[in-house]
Predict the 3D structure of the following.
Amino acid sequence: MPSGGSAQTRRQLEDALYTLCVVTGTRRLDAALYVARQQLADAMTRQQPLRR
């Protein structure tokens, strides 16, 4: 975790990290980012119908 910043900012970063790990089923930031990038790339390659 980077040093500096307010306690609120650190808490928000920790919450975001926790959520990303839960959503991707991982326990480490590097793994969570890798999985999230893969999921985004997969979603971008699928054809999605346009909503009206």
